Amino acid sequence: METRNVIVPVHDGPIDLTRPHFVGVGGAGMSALARLLLESGSRVSGSDTDDTTALRELEDAGASVAIGHTAGNLPADATVLVWSSAVTPGNPEVAAARRSGIPVVHRSDVLARVIAAAEQSVAVAGTHGKTMTTGILSAALAHLDPSYAIGGTPVDHPNAHQGFGGLLVAEADESDRTAGRYHPQVAVVLNVDDDHPEQYVDLNDVLDVFERLARNSSILVVSSDDPGARLLIERLQAAPGPRVVTVGEAKDADVRVLRVLWDGAASHVTVQDTDGSWHEFTVAVPGRHNALNAAAAFATGRVLGTEPADLVAGINAFQGIKRRLTTTGTHAGVTVLDSYAHHPSEITADLATARMLTEGRVIAVFEPTGWTRTAALGEEMGRRLAAADEVVLLDVHASVESPLTGVSTAPMAAQVVACGGRAHTAGDGRDAADVVAELAGPGDLVVTMGTGTAGRVGRAVLLRLAEAPATVRAA
């Protein structure tokens, strides 16, 4: 598979962040960084293609935001233009900044400066679960008033905050190969999987980026269970590197998960600390994978010297992250959950969790992300989706890539059927909502999955059920 391998140039000089302008400011990572700078006293402006909740919240917080991309959006007194890897080539605001001599830097350059300036810093990374873990860790350390930047929005507060405790917790995104640029005191690697085929050649290529991040840190908190994380640990043993603290269910884990008990959508987790003491906390989000994410947050807090009781209290107070198996609503006995899963491993984890939450059927609504990803991973996604009773496939969502000839969801659907599942195709969310409303009945659980517009389907399904209750399948 040919990779896109977008090269993100490194900005070596100083960056004046007094008046930053963000292009693509509504993105998960960009909006967090913009809010962090806004709360630090910067005069923030930005633009994005769609009018979203993230933009409105930034505007309410004091930022100046614009819908659409035009050269006129760029303030004349901007000190820097910040772009993300989702920004398309030839963006008029980027071009205007270059013509005006305003520095143009990638969001990773800004986050690297923020991490370097913190008295203490933690960068949370991993192919899966980093957003959830960053959120849990921020909650666990809330008594210290940390600064944080999360690549998703917690259900009960914003995705970023400038604290006064001197500690920064930041999510480190590997999707554009920039996670290796950060130099935190503590790095967290939850797992290493073969992902982002538009950027990486293979698993070893992915490991290279995580290894750079690990070697840039003084302490590495890393999964004892994940095969890719184990490979990372082996790599680090080849030369002097960070102190390694492992966490997970493996018997040799430094911080070991001893027990996970389910109570509806919550998990009661018992861990054994490095000194042999046992501690219990409750995670208010479903799934074994999220219980392990919480254990990683606990282990990281202990590395920072935080008392176990304070960490337990913070984890117990955590309420979850939007679009990470959060409940969209319930109508006529049908419950809809929303999931960000877009990789085979994530699909498996979230569908297994869905099975635990219902005695009825599980209906998966999946929107593939990216043409290259669909070409490379589509058939495996189909095999994993077959764990659901019914699978409704939307068209491919791709905000940056151009369509690839011959790539579609057809092979994915074929694999669902080959593995014993039932596949339905729906071009867009409106069609998908109609299909799901016809399929779903009392006791069923619908899971909308994907990074793009899939979440809207859940709300549309609930509206269809409310409009035409007679079409609901009898139990």
Proper CATH architecture of the largest domain: 3-Layer(aba) Sandwich
Helical residues, percent: 25-40%
Q: Tally the structural domains.
A: 3
Q: Provide the low-confidence segments as ranges.
A: 470-475
Rg, alpha carbons? 22 Å
Percentage of β-strand residues = 15-25%
- The rounded distance between the terminal residues' Cα atoms is 46 Å
Question: What gross morphology would you assign?
Answer: globular
- Kindly state the mean pLDDT as a whole number? 94
**Structural class given helices, strands, pairing?**
alpha/beta
The CATH first-level class of the largest domain comes to Alpha Beta
CATH topology of the largest domain: UDP-N-acetylmuramoyl-L-alanine:D-glutamate ligase
Sheet with the most strands?
A: 10 strands, mixed
- CATH-defined superfamily of the largest domain: Mur-like, catalytic domain
User: Which strand order does the major sheet show?
Assistant: 8-7-9-6-10-11-12-13-14-15
Query: With helices defined by DSSP (H or I, 4 residues minimum), what is the helix count?
Result: 14
Write down how many β-strands occur, each being a DSSP E stretch of 2 or more residues. Answer: 21
Topology:
Blueprint: E1 20-23, H1 28-39, E2 45-48, H2 53-60, E3 64-67, E4 80-83, H3 92-100, E5 104-106, H4 107-117, E6 120-125, H5 130-140, E7 147-149, E8 160-161, E9 167-171, E10 186-189, H6 203-215, E11 219-223, H7 227-236, E12 243-248, E13 255-263, E14 266-272, E15 278-283, H8 288-303, H9 308-317, E16 324-331, E17 334-339, H10 344-357, E18 362-366, H11 371-385, E19 390-393, H12 410-418, E20 423-425, H13 429-439, E21 445-449, H14 454-467
Parallel strand pairs: 1-2, 1-4, 2-3, 4-5, 6-9, 6-10, 7-9, 10-11, 11-12, 12-13, 17-21, 18-19, 18-21, 19-20
Antiparallel strand pairs: 7-8, 13-14, 14-15, 16-17
Helix pairs in contact: 5-8, 5-9, 6-7, 8-9, 10-11, 11-12, 13-14
